[in-house]
């Protein structure tokens, strides 16, 4: 049977076919849909973890118990999960364990474009890289076999174009006859004290050598001989671009990107006149091939930053005069009005950022929809580093500032990000009494990645009712004395509380309590009465435009000098934030 | 490069139903027996940003993204976004556009003006051009929300697939509740 699947759907299918029993993840573009799809298979216990470290540790526990298990995350998630990953490499596995990492070259939805292949080498674990959805499924199955055969966790690296690209996949039946999970004691292998770990480390080094030899004859690493003039080593989606851009070139397509199959690379190098490595981001393969003493060209001509594409590869080869220049395409570069993403109409964050801007706050930001508070006209974010950093950045910045500047520092963080790594940061802030203000924008969901449940939302991945983290009580338990809860649609109240807490020379937390307006469950979010601009009362003062709501449009008059505002009835959710800004009472409920 | 491949681009604004339309397209090509690949960016773009979806079909498709300058058909849900992605097309490509404007943030704020005469400008660069009022037709069919299916119907005329293939793809991809109105919308687009 054949289906068109995204890479993420295919990885989920592969996990199902491999007999995976436990899956854990924290959402992150472009990896999110892997666990969402895994959760459709009832044979797999799948759940959201509060962060990637916990997700990997849940998978490790399941593996130690003998079950095949999988953890999924985006590239920066591996930074959070790196701690268990490096020691997991020493312990090895019980049931097979696969860590899926989805990179985001070009940073379509990320804060950096780190190349996760470096983690495989750093942690000394094998990594596979599929080139389409069929391989996503196949490699996931193979990764479990490899994991158990070599007693190692296996990483699979996807990227945005693989995870969110779709192609045709042949489905198979799940494997049967896997051993039943049970407790087996083996402290020398699983208790990583120095004495035990010293025994494990040499085994890890030998494993890498063995895997390299295994890769020499593993069919997922394959030589495709075409012209002997140009030979290209490539992996993953880059292989597809190479086939498109340089159809005559011979290729060594690597399914396993670490450790490299050295004999096979030597063999390929000997059959071509000129050897190239085409890889996205870092010269990961290139440097290893050079270290083998094989002359190879890579980043000298291929960009280090951003995604590749058939066009970019062709241009690189044309510029280096390796292939003749094609006819110049009639590319007209011109400036068009950009269309950046924006907070949704009715977003509960909008009014808060409007007031932070008015209060001349210095806002340490975090990762989520609310990072869009950076955009004009709100312009209310001054830093954004990584998950959870808003609070600790605020805690650090106030330490060297004079009191009048300390007061301006406000950290903003969402509910899911707070639970991810913000709790530790707030613990630090309370412990060391850093006098900054923290706003937890609690919209009851992990919104940016497409509305996933989290430990404070009250539901599990499967939609089953779950205990809710009591965020105000948690803050108090950490030692925050001043915890304020408010309705972010009430600008007067929000402004008042913000002023009070900002002027307080102690740590304090403000929690907003309106749900994300994209939550589809009516019991959690429903629209309020629709608003309109009564045109006869609108003076054209533009006050309502200062919140940047996509539902409000400026309609200039014929000369373009004056105009009036207009509310799009299809977009308005009736949040009333604009209404509160109108001094002329021109924004009213539609009768 | 691969002349046996047809490259379709669907462009517009996050929330316009571009992903569903491209899913239906890809499904139809698979049912018709072609190799097919598709690619787009999720995430940030869902928040009202610019969206482009690549759908490629033929005997054997490698890259999931359309090489720059090789797009054969552009299927635009919005005028400014159609204008934005013209550089992805080959000379002489076919352009089918929804006669619809969504103001970008700077226009909503009154800082910029939405460009005028976009349809005319596009039709001068790409003479194989068709402008469709998807919203009006969808409203006639009975549901504004199926404008994307009207457009898909209009595009389907240029893709040489059998009626039955399209019906099968729609049946598979559209929720049962909405199937009838979508079939009707598709038909009105196809008969334009």
List the helices and strands and how they pair.
The complex is a heterodimer of chains A (591) and B (192).
Chain A: E1 2-6, H1 7-17, E2 22-25, H2 32-38, E3 45-48, H3 52-64, E4 69-74, H4 75-91, E5 97-103, H5 117-123, E6 127-128, H6 133-150, E7 154-159, H7 160-163, E8 165-170, H8 187-190, H9 194-216, E9 222-224, E10 227-235, H10 236-245, E11 249-254, E12 256-258, H11 262-271, E13 274-277, H12 284-291, H13 310-319, H14 350-358, E14 362-364, H15 389-397, H16 403-406, E15 409-414, H17 415-431, E16 437-441, H18 471-478, E17 482-486, H19 491-502, E18 508-512, E19 531-533, E20 552-556, E21 563-567, H20 577-581, E22 587-589
Parallel strand pairs in A: 2-3, 2-4, 4-5, 5-7, 6-7, 10-11, 10-13, 14-15, 15-16, 16-18, 17-18
Antiparallel strand pairs in A: 1-8, 6-12, 9-11, 19-22, 20-21
Helix pairs in contact in A: 1-2, 1-6, 3-4, 9-11, 10-13, 14-19, 15-17
Chain B: E1 6-13, H1 18-31, E2 35-40, E3 50-58, E4 71-76, H2 79-84, E5 89-98, H3 105-108, H4 118-125, E6 129-132, H5 134-141, H6 147-156, H7 163-173, H8 176-190
Parallel strand pairs in B: 1-4, 4-5, 5-6
Antiparallel strand pairs in B: 1-3, 2-3
């Amino acid at each position: 049977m054949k289906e068109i699947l995204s890479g993420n759907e295919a990885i989920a299918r592969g996990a199902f076919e491999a007999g995976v029993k436990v899956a854990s993840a924290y959402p992150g573009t472009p990896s999110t849909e892997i666990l969402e799809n895994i959760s459709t298979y009832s044979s797999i216990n799948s759940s959201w973890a509060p962060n990637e470290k916990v997700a990997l540790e849940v998978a490790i526990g399941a593996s130690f118990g003998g079950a095949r298990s999988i953890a999924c995350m985006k590239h920066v998630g591996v930074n959070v999960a790196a701690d268990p990953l490096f020691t997991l490499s020493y312990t090895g596995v019980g049931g097979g364990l696969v860590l899926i990492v989805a990179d985001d070259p070009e940073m379509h939805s990320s804060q950096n474009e780190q190349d996760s292949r470096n983690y495989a080498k750093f942690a000394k674990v094998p990594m596979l890289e599929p080139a389409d959805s069929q391989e996503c499924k196949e490699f996931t199955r193979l990764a479990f076999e490899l994991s158990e055969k070599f007693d190692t966790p296996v990483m699979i690296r996807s990227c945005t174009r693989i995870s969110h690209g779709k192609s045709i996949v042949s489905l198979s039946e799940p494997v049967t006859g896997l051993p039943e999970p049970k407790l087996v004691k083996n402290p020398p292998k699983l208790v990583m004290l120095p004495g035990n770990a010293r025994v494990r480390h040499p085994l890890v080094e030998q494993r890498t050598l063995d895997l390299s030899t295994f890769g020499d004859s593993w069919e997922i690493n394959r030589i495709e001989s075409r012209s002997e003039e140009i030979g290209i080593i490539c992996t993953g989606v880059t292989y597809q671009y190479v086939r498109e851009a340089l159809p005559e070139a011979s290729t060594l397509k690597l399914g396993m990107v670490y450790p490299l199959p050295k004999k096979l690379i030597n063999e390929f190098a000997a059959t071509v006149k000129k050897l190239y490595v085409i890889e996205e981001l870092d010269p990961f393969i290139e440097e290893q091939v050079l270290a083998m003493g094989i002359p190879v060209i890579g980043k000298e001509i291929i960009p280090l930053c951003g995604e590749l594409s058939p066009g970019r590869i062709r241009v690189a080869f044309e510029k280096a005069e390796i292939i003749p220049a094609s006819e110049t395409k009639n590319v007209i570069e011109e400036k068009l009005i950009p269309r950046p993403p924006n907070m949704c109409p009715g977003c509960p964050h909008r009014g808060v950022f409007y007031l932070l801007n008015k209060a001349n706050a210095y806002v340490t930001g975090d990762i989520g929809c609310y990072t869009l508070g950076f955009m004009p006209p709100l312009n209310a974010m001054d830093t954004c580093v990584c998950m959870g950093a808003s609070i600790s950045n605020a805690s650090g910045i106030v330490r060297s500032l004079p009191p009048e500047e300390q007061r301006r520092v406000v950290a903003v963080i969402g509910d899911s990000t707070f639970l991810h790594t913000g709790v530790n940061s707030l613990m630090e802030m309370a412990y060391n009494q850093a006098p900054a203000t923290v706003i937890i924008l609690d919209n009851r969901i992990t919104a940016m990645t497409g509305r996933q449940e989290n430990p404070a939302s009250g539901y599990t991945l499967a939609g089953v009712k779950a205990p809710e983290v009591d965020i105000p009580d948690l803050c108090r338990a950490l030692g925050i004395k001043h915890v304020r809860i408010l309705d972010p649609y009430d600008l007067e109240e929000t402004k008042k509380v913000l002023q009070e807490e900002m002027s307080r020379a102690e740590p304090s937390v403000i929690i907003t309590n309106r749900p994300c307006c994209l939550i589809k469950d009516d019991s959690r979010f429903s629209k309020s009465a629709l608003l309109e601009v009564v045109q006869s009362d609108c003076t054209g003062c533009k006050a309502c435009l200062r919140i940047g709501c996509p539902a409000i449009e400026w309609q200039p008059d014929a000369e373009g000098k004056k105009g009036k505002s207009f509310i799009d009835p299809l977009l308005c959710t009736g949040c009333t934030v604009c209404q509160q800004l109108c001094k002329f009472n021109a924004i009213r409920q539609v009768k | 490069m691969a002349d046996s491949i047809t490259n379709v681009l669907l462009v517009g604004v996050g929330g316009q139903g571009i992903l569903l339309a491209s899913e239906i397209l890809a499904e139809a090509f698979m049912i018709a027996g072609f190799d097919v690949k598709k690619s787009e960016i999720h995430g940030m773009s869902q928040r009202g940003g610019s969206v482009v979806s690549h759908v490629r079909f033929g005997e054997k498709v490698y890259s999931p993204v359309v090489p720059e300058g090789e797009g054969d058909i552009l299927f635009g849900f919005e005028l400014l976004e159609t204008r934005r992605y013209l550089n992805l097309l080959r000379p002489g490509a076919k352009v089918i556009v929804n006669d619809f404007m969504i103001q970008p943030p700077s226009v909503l704020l009154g800082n910029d003006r939405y460009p005028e005469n976009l349809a005319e400008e596009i039709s001068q660069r790409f003479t194989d051009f068709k402008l469709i009022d998807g919203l009006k037709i969808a409203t006639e069919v009975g549901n504004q929300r199926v404008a994307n299916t009207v457009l898909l119907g209009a595009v389907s005329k240029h893709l040489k697939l059998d009626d039955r293939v399209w019906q099968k793809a729609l049946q598979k991809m559209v929720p049962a509740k909405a199937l009838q109105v979508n079939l009707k919308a598709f038909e009105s687009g196809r008969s334009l």
